[in-house]
Specification:
With 163 residues, the chain is mainly α. The protein has 5 helices and 2 strands; from the N terminus they run ααααββα.
Amino acid sequence: MSTHLQSPEQIVLDKQFLTETLAEALDNIHADTQPQWGSFIAQEMIEHLADATRKSTLKTWDPAREPKEEQQRFKQQFFYSDTPMMKNMPNPLFKDGKPALIHPDITAAKQDLQQAVSEMMAKCEANPTVEYFHFYAGNMSYQDLLRFHVKHFSHHLSQFGAL
């Protein structure tokens, strides 16, 4: 079971961020919007967030397994601190290069990201006690997923000056 409990108010704020704030921020990002750091183009970043959102609920956590100490430490430092994500943080999933674009344009990518968020939230709300597996953070409750995605989205939306 996750050891991080958010206040009901924080959960509402996280949900609002992933729906309302995300929609507003996406309106400020266009195909030609340049990043303030990093190598993503705008559509790559948006597709990356959609992919991360979908993958966050692919594997359920085995409740008989104890999360590793380093996973719990990562979760605390990364998800539950006010420290922003490091700029230009290498992603081990991109060691062979970034994935090819999957959508014909940025508008379709934005719609897909919002759909991915809706699907993730619906899945978690339908099964609120299910925890999911995250390679770095171990077990992830719905509250943990909300915090992770808010932090991750904030990082990339700021990368493109949308927050």
